[in-house]
Each structure stands twice: as structure tokens, then as C-alpha cells.
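[09:14] KT: can someone run the structure on this one? pasting the chain below
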Amino acid sequence: MNRVQKPFHQQIMIDSVKLEKRGHQFVRYADDFMIFVKSKHAAERVMSSVTRYLGKELKLVVNQEKSRIVKAEECEYLGFIFRNKRITWSDESLKKFKYNISRLTARSWGISMEKRLERLSSYIRGWMAYYALSKYYTPLPGLDNWIRRRVRMCYLKQWRKPRTRIGNLISLGTPKGQAISVGLSCKGPWRLAKTFGSQGALTNAYLKEQCLISVLDLWVAFHDPK
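[09:31] RB: done, C-alpha cells below
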């Protein structure tokens, strides 16, 4: 008679109990595990023991390419790493975040600014809902500045005609001379997005009114709700 295999989630629960009985410190999400020990020798022993147990007792195949012994600060887990005894997002996670922001603020994307800001803010809110746990504050102001510059670039790209740019900048509070300088400039939208004329019209406060979400504000709200 063929033995009926236990459901996958039940096998994982049994495995967790086994680790607890052995006194191991570990974290688990679905089939991803991190087990913490004090020395490399102990890590090698536990790695061998757990791999053997998973294979023989639970009939689970261990991914040898992803399974390794490393120091805690060298290990990425679910998009997080340990840096100077603090948990923070990994470099790869931040790289992916910036890639998606660039995609959502692409100049060639034919979409209204209202819809663009709606989708952009929705993505930022979702990303920070997951990564706000990170205690890495340092890059946040720079990220906000970069995102705002890309949004200003989108506005300037949408106002492609000099007369339109000048009129919109003036209506948003830019002095006439600066507005004309930006409107008649041969520089591209990315470079113009950093000028005083553009920043004076498309201020941080104005972009917030248009519902652009701040990465820094979300992080602060998570770590200091008061």
C-alpha cells in the first residue's frame, strides 16, 4: 500500500515543532527557514541534521542552491537584512523599488498626472506597509527628493509647449522671469525639474496636495505613531 503523504503545511508545522524541541532559534515563513546558532561548527552540524530530517522523515527536497551557512548580517530574508544589529531592507529590495518608481514615472507613459500619482502613491504605500519595519532612516529623505524630482519631470514633460509651461509655472507661483527661463530652456525635463523655477511652482506642499505619498512620512508614522 502506498503511504499517503501528509499535506505540505502540516509537514512544515511538524518541522517547526522539531526545531523547537531541539532548542533552536529560528524564523519561518512558508517553506523559508533561518536557523540561528553561535558558531560555524554548530551551523554545519544543524544544517546536516535538518537536511537529513527533512529528506528522510518529511520527504521534502532541500534547495541546495539557496541553502547556505552565513553570518546573520550577510543573509537576506524576505527582502530584509541585518545591518549593524538593525533590520533593514536589502539592497536588492531598494533597487527593485527604485526600478518600479522609475517605471511609474516614465516620461513616455501616456497617462494623466492624476492617474499617475494615484498609482505611484498606491505602490509607495504598499511597499512601505511591508518595509516600514526597517530601521534604516538615512536614505529616506533622499528617496523622497528623488521621487519628487521625477514627478516634477512628468509635469514638465506633460507641459511640453513653452507657452503652456510658462503659464502653468506662473499660475503656481513661480516668478515670471524664472518661468520664462524654464519654459524657453532647451534642457530636458529631468534637468529642469531641479531648477528653482520648477521647484518654486511644484513645491513639496503642492505635490502632497496632489496626493503624492512621502516615504519618510510613512516611515515616521510607523516608528513614532504619536
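[09:33] KT: thanks! Confidence is low (pLDDT under 50) at residues 1-14.
[09:34] RB: yep, looked fine to me
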